[in-house]
Every structure is written in structure tokens, then in C-alpha cells.
Amino acid sequence: MKSLPYFCRGEVVRGFGRGSKELGIPTANFPTCVVEQLPADISTGIYYGWASVDNGPVYKMVMSIGWNPYYKNTMKSMETHVIHTFKEDFYGQTLSVVMIGYIRPEKGFDSLDALITAIRNDIEEANQKLELPEHQKLKEDNFFKDPLDTPVDKTSTSTAESTLSTESKHIMNGH
Ligand code: ADP
Ligand code: MG
């Protein structure tokens, strides 16, 4: 996928009540305007990368990109599980992520147990991959410095080509 690594950020919105949190794996959802900016070569499936909330520390993450049944599968959803235990929810805050690599395609599961096992494996794989030295560099990327101060008309990394949403604070850049 030529668009990887892919940087984006946006406000954390309410999901579709699929109860990820009840499974012990909460997923922070991006709004439609962020999802719509995804380059065409980013296919559905599970990705790993780095994430931060507002000006907070950068943590490992796994992200699921999937067709959203709520919109009759015409829209994708981007749901990020940050590999960290937060004291509180962070709806309305800004989530910044860099997607680095692909773990697996989307698939259906016969049981909830099978789904949870697959997600646990995804998290394990993300944990291992992100230890590689080449991935540590992205953790330190300027993109994660002062995300809330980043002006709307500028991307935070100099090499970025940007696609900008003018009226909102959702800043996208595809490397
Ligand atoms: P929703 O359907 O609203 O997305 P979830 O059950 O998926 O509900 O929970 C997601 C919310 O949980 C996020 O929006 C965020 O506020 C909170 N949250 C707490 N810890 C995490 C985490 N480690 N990763 C992602 N979201 C988290
Ligand atoms: Mg969710």
C-alpha cells in the first residue's frame, strides 16, 4: 500500500453501539469527514501504528477499517483501539494516528470468542511490530508534537501532501 505510513487526525465521535467496550476492547471512532479522506489504496482490514489523544503521550494502536453496516455498507468506519488503559473516555478530544502496516483483511467470525481471540492476536502482532527500530521513528514524528496547535491550513510534517477540510479542525495528510 503506497499510502502507508498514513497520518490523520480528528475528533473522537460516538460509535454505533456495538459494545466494543463491553468486550474489553474499546474503539475510538473517527467522524465521516476523516473516513472520507482515506486514500483509495487503503483497503479494509486491521492496521497497526501509533496514536495520541490531544497533547498526550504516543501509544501503540490497532485500527480496524471496515464497511459500516449502519450506513448499509456504503461508508467505511475507522476505529482505533489505543493499547493503553485510560482512566476516562475521551469523546470530543482529538485523536492523532499514523497507520504504519497492515495486519490482516476484514473477516467474519463464528463466535464472539473467536472474534476476541483474533483481536487479542492483532494486538499482540502490533505490539511486536512496533518494537522494530524503524517504527520508533514515526512515534517521534513532528505530527505528534502540538497537535492542537496545528493550524488548519498547514500539515505538521514538511514532506506531507495535504488534503484539508477547511471548516473543521480535522487535519489530514497522506505521505
Ligand atoms: P463507541 O461505540 O462509542 O465507539 P466503544 O465501546 O467502542 O464505544 O468505546 C469507545 C470509547 O472508549 C472511545 O471513544 C474512548 O472515548 C473510550 N476509550 C477508553 N479507552 C480507550 C482505548 N484504550 N482505546 C480507544 N478508546 C478508548
Ligand atoms: Mg467504537
Give a quick summary of the entry.
With 175 residues, the protein is an alpha+beta fold.
Q: Which sheet architecture does the biggest sheet show?
A: 8 strands, antiparallel
What ligand species are in this complex?
Answer: adenosine-5'-diphosphate, magnesium ion
Q: In what range is the share of β-strand residues? A: 25-35%
Task: Round the mean pLDDT to the nearest integer and report it.
Answer: 85
**Unreliable stretches, pLDDT < 50, 5 or more residues?**
152-175
Shape: globular
Number of helices: 3
Radius of gyration: 15 Å
Topology as a string of helices (H) and strands (E)? EEHEEEEHHEE
Helix content: 10-25%
Polypeptide structure, described:
This protein is α+β, with helices and mostly antiparallel strands. Helices cover 17% and strands 30% of the residues. The chain contains three helices and eight strands, in the order ββαββββααββ. The chain has helices at residues 32-35, 112-129, 133-139; strands at 6-11, 28-29, 45-53, 59-67, 76-82, 94-104, 161-164, 171-174. It has an eight-stranded antiparallel beta sheet. The longest helix has 18 residues, at 112-129. The model is unreliable at 152-175 (pLDDT under 50). The structure holds adenosine-5'-diphosphate (ADP) and magnesium ion. The site of adenosine-5'-diphosphate has 20 residues, from strand 2 and strand 5.
